[in-house]
Amino acid sequence: MGINERKTREKQALRERILEAARRIVIREGFAALSMRKIADAIEYSPATLYLYFASRDEIARALCAEGYAQLLASFEPLVQITDPAERLRALTRAYVAFGVAHPQTYRLIFMEDPTYLGAALGGTGEAGKVSGTGANDQANSQADPKVDRHANHEAAHQAEHADKSQAGTQVINPAAGHDTGDASMRLMVGALEELRAAGRLPGSADGAALAQALWATMHGIVALNLTCPVFPTVSLDTVVDAALDAWFGVREQVTVAAAGAAAATGSAHARRPAAKRKVVDA
Question: Is the pTM of this model over 0.85?
Fold first, then answer.
């Protein structure tokens, strides 16, 4: 192994240590407790070293969001093979809720903390999410720590400037707006809803992207309430999810079947009536 390759591996290993420490803090104490100083203490390095890898706490948060979102997508992978689009959507939405419940702090960080974090998870950042150096809290921590040296600050500023240039003009990614950003989760939902519409199982005028936004909002609302409201739900969470899914996919199909049955019964009655009339006339 060459010297450069060894140094690259060592840098990658330390980067992973930083992220792992940050992940443990977020999971254990919540995002509000995360700071560069606390991460540095956890891995027994100075905060100055962290700034050589991440320009700010927000940059670490965006990296954690990208990892968490990839984990969510991985839970969707085995479900794309489900043939029936309604059942596929049921499975996808259940997996989405299950992820939020099993990983509450990660879910909060991705979907409930800062809009730019979700954009980063999907592969982009906006003006508010650009890396522009350390945040106010990070700067305060650096100034309070005598181990922060001029070289580290200069290097962090250089990396931040480079990040600004590379990200200039990038828009915040909004999956609900149907942006083509590699957001596989939204494409899965839109595709399944379009299949339902093509099969006549949704109103012909319904737009797949709009329906996907509404379905996503439904499931996000369930997860967010479960994470933030102590009196929700008053029944089991599975019951709430099933009721929501039945409202979306079950009731319409039941009504369609009932209507078809009623039409068939009406048709049979009409078919019998002429015969009855002829019998009377013949008599």
Answer: no
